[in-house]
Each structure stands twice: as C-alpha cells, then as structure tokens.
Amino acid sequence: MSNEQLLALLPFMVLAGASIVVILMIAARLSHTAIQVAGFLMLCFTVLAMGYVRDILPQEILPLFIIDGFAALYTGVIIFSVGVVGLLSYIYFEEREENPKEYYILLFLATLGAAVLTISRHFVSLFLGLEILSVSLYALIAYLRNRNNAIESGLKYLILAALTSAFLLLGMALFYMETGSMEFNAIGQKLAGSDPGVLFKLGLALMVVAIGFKLALVPFHLWAADVYQGAPAPVTAFIATASKVGVFAVLMRFSLAVNLQQSEFLLNVFSGIAIASMILGNILALRQQNIKRLLAYSSIAHLGYLIVAFLPGTREGIEASVFYLFAYAITILSAFGIVTILSTRMKDAEDLSVYRGLFWRKPLLAAVLAVSLFSLAGIPLTAGFFAKFIVLLTGANYNLWLPVIVLVLTSVIGLYYYLRIISTLFASAPAAEPRHKPLHPFFHFVTYATLFVLMVMICVLGVFPGPAIEGIRQFLMIR
Amino acid sequence: MNVSDILFYFLSALAIGSAILVVISRSPIYSVLWLIVTFFAISGHYIMMNAQFLGIVNLIVYAGAIMVLFLFVIMLINLNTDAKPQKGKWLRLAGTVAGGCLLLVLVAALKNTEVKGMGVQVGTGDIGLINQLGKALFTEYVVPFEISSILFLSAMVGAVVIGKK
Hints:
The complex is a heterodimer. By secondary structure, chain A is an all-alpha fold.
C-alpha cells in the first residue's frame, strides 16, 4: 500500500483512534465532560483530516475500497450527523443515573462502521462495515438498561439484524457463484451486455432483504417503530441519520457498478418498494400519538422518497439523493434534538401531550420543532421542500411517473400529521410548571445553540440551495 | 461413483439432516449437540476441498469453543421443562407457510441454473492451506483484517456495557 493510499484512509483512522482515546480516558477515570470535549475534538480532527486528504482523492485501495468524492460526501453527512448527536447526548446522558461514558466508544465505532460502508466496493468490506455498525447499535439501543423497553428493542434489533445478515451472506454467495467475484466493478463487467441471470436476481433479492431492513423500507420496516421508541433519543437520531446514510451509500455504489437500473424488472422491484414505503409509512403515521413512533413511520416514508432519487441511477440521481439525505439529516436531527432536550430523567418526551402549548413555555424550542416539521412535510422555504423538489424533478426527467405521482399524493397525507403536531405546539398551554435551574448551564447553552444553528441551516438551504448543490457537484467530479 | 462422491453426498446429507434437527429439537441441549454434528460435517467438506487448516479451525473455534459456551449458558440459565417457549398455533402455521414459500421460490429459481464449469476442485485446491491463507490475509486483505479487530472491539465493549452491574 502506498503512502497516498494510507493517507487517504486517515479520516477513518482518526475515527477508529477516537474510540481508543475514549477507552483510555475512561481507564484514566476522567469525567464525562472531558470525554465529551475530547470526542468533539476528535470529530473536528476527522473533518480536518478529510479536508487535508481532499487533494489526493480519488484513491483506490484494491480490491476493497475506493475513496472518491462520492464517498467523501456521504462520509461528510455521517460525520456531521454524529457531531450533532454527540452534542445532544451530553445533557441527555448526564441527567441519567447510569454511567454515560462507554456510550461514546460505541458511538464512534458505529460511525466508523457507517463510514466504512461509504467507501467499500467489495462484499468483504461491505459486510465488515455493516457488522461494525450493527454490533455497536445493539448495545447503543439497549444502553439504558433500566428503562422498560430498552432491552426489548435491543433484542428485537439484534435478532432481526442477525437474520438479515444471514440473508445478505447467502446473497453474496450467490453473486459469487454467478460471477466468480466479490468486487462490485468486476461483477458489473461480468454481467455487462447480458441479461442478469437467475442467480444474480436471487442474490439481489436476498440482499434487498438486508438492505431494506437497514433502511426500514416496507416490507422490512416492522422493527422501526419499536426500536425508535425503545432506544435513547440521541441513539434514535443516529439510527435515523448516520446508519441509513451509510447503507444507502453502499446500495448506490453497488447499483451503479452493476448497472442495476438498466434492467426493467429490477427497476420495477425498487419502484414497488418505494411506492409501498411512501404509502404505508404515511398512513401508519396518521393516528400516531407517540412522537418517536411517528418520526419512525415518517422516516419509512422519507426513505421511500429517497428511493425515487435512486431509481434513475444517473449523476442527477446521486446529486438529488445526497442533497435529500443532507436536508433530511439536518431536519430529523433537529426534531430528535427537541425530543432529547425535553426528556426528563425517567422518561423520554415521546408523548404528544408533553408538547401541548410548548410555544407558550419555550418559544425557541417550539420554533425549531415547527420548522423541522415543516421541512419534513416539505413546505416551501425549508430544506425539505427543495430536497423533495429536486427528487421530483429527477424522477420526472426520467419518466418515472408512477413513483412521482405517489410521492406527491403521499406528501399531502404527510402534511396532515405534521400539522397536527404543530397545532398542538400552539394550543392553549397548561399551567406553567416551575422552572428548573439547568444543571449544566454551559452545555444547555451549547445544545440550544446547536438546535438554533440547525434551524437556520434548514431555512438557508430552503432559500439558497444553489451553493450546496454546486458543492455537491464539485465533490462528485472527484472520481 | 468414486469415493469422494460418496463422501460428499454423505457429508452433505449429514450436514442438512443435523441442521434440521437443530431447529426441531425440543431441548436446547439437543439442539447444541446436533449443531456440533453439523460443524463436523462442514469441516469434512473443507478437508475434501483440501482446506485442512480451515477445517481444523472451524472445529476448534465453533465445535470447541463456541458450543461449549452455548452449553454453559444453557446450564446457567437452568431451563427446566416448564419454561418451554410459548408459541401460538397460528404463529407456527405462519412460519411454516413463509419458510415453505421461500423454499419453493429457491427451488423454482435454481432448477434451471447451470453452474458454468465452476465446480469445486476436490482435493486439488490450495486456497485453504495455511500458507495461502496467511499470504492473502496479510497482503491483499490486510485492511479488512484490521477492521475485523475493530468489529471485535465493538462487540466486546457492547457486551461489557450491557452485562455490567
């Protein structure tokens, strides 16, 4: 391996190193605050390292990895989400009686797993990345063991993820049997020019089970609501953003390498999944009173919208999907940020009644939540609107009329339940409760500031999306 | 039909039969014991493909270490006859139907596939020998080798976090 290849892996090494740093700090019995600050610094180093290696991209590390602009974009979204999740975690875990320190090790390891997925171009690295991500998530989901459904949801995720891993492995074995290779490009070359064989289709069907599970697409979505509800709020935010970005990135890379979208049959399968996810996700969310479950169903629907951008399999599709994921990450992080900050010592703020009249008690938080819900619903002047718009545009350019029409119709259904929550925010308030003095004024300030910045980003991306799109284009040139 | 064919069919039948018994045994102890038989059969396959090292490692790690761990865990949980898992009639029916459908789809899809002359090289391959394996692991696949150590780290931290008092 040459120096430059090693250098290109630097951001990933820093991420792996971050977990070791946290382990050593725990061994030295340093405080939660010190670990939080060190973790944040390590993430900053990762970002710096990514900027540092930008000029030597793209680098291929045969046969496993390719570090190009595509990977850098998705990794960037992952690192950004984890940074926000880390900032939100401090107050949440500091107020729980249990020891919060090991949480950061697992968070960094899960991030590394998701980041490895974005650069992998070989089934071995795909599987390793996916397993690092899932194994860390098992423990993260069940982290607050004394809660009622923490262990239950952790176990649900464990069993289902292990089952789908088995499907994934069998799918890989069938690909290998058909093409004699585990590397994406080599598989693509073997298949070029001929209609994909039965083994390939069967292998892909088995792989779709695993990928669909991770992305919570219908009909592999059954875990989503329970796990979202049972996991601690910052972990839920992580599952909703970083883990899905990583898995989607590898799905995109694989489909581009093997020209998945060229096959009429496979295209129909994926549009079917997208349509089912959009419809079912939105309908299930309609009558939901629990905000974490509601966001879970809405994330099913949003991943369905995202698959519409995946369908063309062209550069426009990639651009649209990156922008969509970025906008979605910001939006869902600010929504879960509110859930995190309103959670009390014993219970997450998941019941809709907690949010009744929030505007009259905490106007800033209510404004952030309202803006993020508007963005999820896709109201103009928010990032969510523009993201949905370019997804629609890409779909319409490639004559994918059925998914596009379903996207528009289901967005209207979605509007109903997002507006229902927003109207709750402005309902007449119950009697004001006594104000608690925050235990950690500095970190409270940091969390509020983070949420405020996220809100501003949603609005800016919704009004001036041009620079962001241009940046995405430039990164995608690096290939 | 020469000896290696007979051995292959015998080992395959043994592996599939004992794997089915793992699933349908009522007592978890029997399941574990049948699983050990399965691992032995799979190790036999490895040895037939001239992958002695993989076969032995498979035995030591799975049949040796992990199965003993399973047995100990079952012993510590102290399952008695009252603690049988409660499974509804409908759930069982649904499971059977779903599994049967998967079987049918697999059979229907695979019935016409020919494997284009990529049969297993019985007794002549060298990929599972310790020399080849070491070279592959420490040159071409050195990065995933390192990454898998991180995978173990995350599993270890997770187990400690969940398991501690």
